[in-house]
Design goal:
globular, three-stranded antiparallel beta sheet, 280 residues, alpha/beta, seven-stranded mixed beta sheet
């Protein structure tokens, strides 16, 4: 049985059991694999279980990780549903989105119906904030300026690192303090930090949303972000410098995060900054 068929069987089994929401795992979605889960929704239009790929929250997490005052970002890596949504939203916000390769530029421009003027082709790598996905090369990273901030929009972190640059983790959030018996969600994330793609299914269920969040559709990003904060999930706001990482495996490192003041959770950054501690 192929992985595609196994995912379909899992969805149908969940539907038979009365499951309300099924969240696709990191390796269980993609354009080539199943159209971000949309393949199963189109095959089974009477599904009662809601299929969530988590892209809407992943976009929200990345957007809220970009430093305030940023006027231009470099988008580099494989163009995915998340990448297209990021580029479109940032352009709408007046932030210039630069690409290096003309084919990426044309794909993005065509997806915007050729109407977006904040999308540009860059002839250098001087942008201090990079949004990066799969297929980012070591050669490209070596061209970045010292102090560049790399923010992944991919499900898995970049393989190579610059010792004089900063790296945000993949789209993820700190889980509510009331949630117990949770350790590491992924082996590259700190304890009690969960991938946005997984959190999205939880929030979808808690909110009782009645539509699917998969295929090429996107939920209202601001709505998803605010709802996630209201349920106690908190953003990670400190990028990680490569020199602060332990290169051996396994290693454990933790983030000491500031908490939102009660009743003041908004779509902005936490009221207190965070710091990093490494545990060996």
């Amino acid at each position: 049985m192929t992985i595609k068929k196994m995912i379909e069987e899992a969805i149908l089994d969940a539907d038979r059991k009365g499951i309300k929401v099924l969240s696709l795992g990191l390796m269980n979605q993609g354009q080539e694999l199943n159209i971000y889960g949309g393949l199963y929704v189109s095959r089974h239009p009477k599904l009662k279980v809601k299929v969530v790929d988590g892209s809407s929250l992943a976009v929200a997490v990345v957007l809220n990780s970009i430093p305030k005052g940023t006027t231009q970002v470099l988008l580099r890596g494989k163009l995915t549903k998340v990448a297209y949504a990021l580029a479109f939203t940032l352009c709408q916000q007046g932030i210039k989105v630069a690409t290096i390769h003309k084919d990426d530029y044309m794909k993005l421009k065509n997806s915007f119906n050729n109407s977006e003027t904040n999308l540009i082709i860059a002839n250098n790598y001087t942008q201090m904030t990079w949004l990066v996905g799969d297929e980012l090369t070591e050669e490209e990273q070596l061209k970045a300026s010292k102090g560049t901030l790399f923010i992944p929009y991919s499900q898995f972190p970049p393989r190579k690192y610059r010792k004089d640059c900063f790296y945000h983790c993949t789209p993820a959030m700190l889980i509510p303090s009331r949630v117990e018996n949770v350790h590491s969600c992924e082996d590259w994330l700190p304890r009690r930090v969960m991938s946005a793609w997984r959190i999205a299914g939880i929030v979808h269920s808690l909110e009782g949303w009645s539509e699917h969040d998969c295929s090429y559709t996107m939920h209202n990003i601001d709505k998803v972000w605010c709802s996630t904060l209201q349920h106690g999930f908190q953003p990670l706001t400190v990028p990680i410098k490569e020199s602060e990482l332990c290169n051996c495996f396994p290693c454990f490192w933790a983030l000491v995060l500031g908490f939102f003041e009660q009743g003041k959770r908004t779509s902005g950054l936490p009221s207190k900054m965070t710091s990093i501690a490494k545990v060996k």
